[in-house]
Write the structure tokens for this entry.
Amino acid sequence: MKDFKKINKGFNRVFRPGKLSVGIVIPIENYESGPIPGMKDHLEKVKLVEELGFKALWVRDIPFNVPSFGDAGQMFDPFTYLGFLSAHTSEIALGISSIALPLHHPLHIAKSATSIDQLSEGRMILGVASGDRPDEYPAMGIEFEKREELFRDAFDYIRNIQGNFPIGGNTNYGNLNGNMDMLPKPYGNKIPLLITGSSRQTLEWNAKNADGWMNYPRNLYQQYNNILQWRELISRDFEYDKPFMQPLYVILEENDDAKPQAIPLGFRIGPKYLLDYFQQLEEIGVNHVAINLRFNSMPMEATLQKIANKVLNQIHQTEKEIQL
């Protein structure tokens, strides 16, 4: 089994070859009845997530509340919010899933991400995407049909500008002549960039350029084949491997033995079967799962405690036994 390349503290903490870690998507609350969360006691719940041993926090980039989309996310600007959370946490990785690259100038993305990476001492993980909400593009004067090209150009720009006095650029975002530099630089050797879905690129391009793949939940057979194809492509160009992660909507049942019932992009499920499912994901090569509890009906603190006690602790105990 090949190692993953070491990038920064957050990436190295979340992604390990052959192992599954678990993170939490913010908001950490039920807002099933409408698209806008209350964000009540959000910081207390974030601190609890870190205390219980979850490996990452994930916020999303949702510039507009689009009623047809049905989810305003955490409402706060993702970089501003992660900067705030970095000051109130110490070890947990800080991830964005994901920045819609065509809706932002890549200089601002790179400067914001490297600022958080420095302030958090290397805990930043940046998911990137081409964007999937057509209403947002005309509101910002951007062509929705150009997002494939814009994504690729923005991605290259972010990679380039993390170097010292970079040279290069493109027609969409401007040219760098080597006479200016962006500060700060990443705390580690770079900001890890995880591509979401395909982002309208080929899997070959994504495997060659991204530091990891963030794909949507699929049945185990399909996901296994996705991961297999991903890692076969990586092996053509690299001596090291790259991680794979996915989100998962969870409605946790109080009954430990409650069998899984499918919901969109996840399950209504008891802790016993959630652990079984995570173990299956680990076996097929998934390295991280970001749990979204938006539709969860149990009290949130009790849910987090139950997942930690019945699922995370079992995963961590297995790791300790293997190490021994």
User: Anything to note?
Assistant: The longest strand covers residues 244-252. The domain at 9-323 is CATH 3.20.20.30 (TIM Barrel). The chain has ten helices and twelve strands.
